[in-house]
Amino acid sequence: MRPFRQRDNDESKNGGRPVADAAPADGTADELARIAAELEAWDGSAPADSVPQGERGRRMASLAGALKGSLGAGWTKGASLVGSTTKDGALRLVDRLTEAVPRIPVRDLRTLRAQHPGARVAEDLADNITSGAVKASASVGAGVGAAAMLPVPPAMAVEIAGELLAVAAIEIKMIAELYEVYGQPVGGSVSQRTGAYLSVWSQRRGLDLSKPTTLVALGAGKELRQQLRKRLTRSGLRKLPSLTPMMVGAVAGAVVNRRDTAKLAQEIRRDLRGRPPAEPGYWAAAAPARAVEGGRAKGRTIKGEAVKGEAVEG
Known about the structure:
The protein has helices spanning 28-37, 39-42, 53-68, 73-76, 84-100, 109-115, 122-148, 156-181, 190-203, 212-218, 221-239, 250-273, 282-285, and strands at residues 105-106, 299-301, 306-307. The chain is built from 13 helices and three strands. Strands 1-2-3 form a three-stranded antiparallel sheet. The protein has one domain. By secondary structure, the chain is mainly alpha-helical. The longest helix is centred in the middle third of the chain and has 27 residues, at 122-148. This is EcsC protein family protein. Residues 1-28 are annotated as: Disordered.
């Protein structure tokens, strides 16, 4: 699958503009962003073969391997998901997720409508995005099962950590695009938008993000980190029964992911449709002027940078 954007560490090759912040050395943030971007293959926007089935297990194994060196002994030895050591590991997961969120590609409404010309109203488009996210989450569960069958699988607790982060990245992309679909795009700075989407994900509610004061409050560091830690830990504990022994319950794990993402989408959509859009007539104003063929249409990341892709005249 084509990376959702290209980076160049040489500013002179980037039009003199500062380049994006470098990803962590282990590549976790970029890998999570790529996994989130695969939602677009599942919702029909990108070719289905852009995510080869055989790659998913290897991708999840690679993600778990990248996490192994940074989460602490409580995770790498398959220890219980409770206790002080694992609490520290969960906070490291929070850091990894927070680093990844600004890199997640978010399509604006015009791009989404161009990619889904059959969606006549917001509910149709929201259905497509939800369906894509649900399938992508389920594929992560299947990928973890495949990773366990590798000759040297990563430690179970680290596999769980990778799955938690991958599903969270997919769901955050879904949340951000649902806000676009319902005419409530989130403004503010990069850190404010990141904090806002993370808060929505951790609280499982479609919060009203239209007020600057709300964005500032949601971006408060310590409280948000604790919310995210609790959410990730609870999710990890729920996955244990389906991932033991030897991942024989991988199919069940995929079902859990599918159900949880679908439930989250339902709750977010209920809250979003209960509020008026920021701009009357937003849906008609975003009618696509060009049809999208082959690849992903141009969009942006949560950081606001361009997402490379192709869009041709209709």
